[in-house]
Amino acid sequence: MEARSVERQREKPWEGEIYESTFPWLLEWRAKTQPDRVAFRWKRYGIWRRYTWRDYYTRVAYAALAWRASASARGRQVLS
Length: 80
Prior knowledge:
The chain is an alpha+beta fold. Helices cover 51% and strands 16% of the residues. It has a two-stranded antiparallel ribbon with strand order 1-2. A hairpin with a 2-residue loop joins strand 1 (38-44) and strand 2. The chain is flat and about 45 Å long. The termini are far apart.
């Protein structure tokens, strides 16, 4: 059991770094290092569905681009 906790500690390269502990950075890091691992699962109509880290990152990126495009189309400034 002790080896497992040490292994988990090594999975956290962002520890101690402020800029690397933001949600966007962590999401991108997971998508690059473990793209095919399951990010989350849910059950719908009795069928288990899942998103991998790659799927999740792609959907978040598209949503962010759509939000930015809709705001700029209305003449609003979006900070990046």
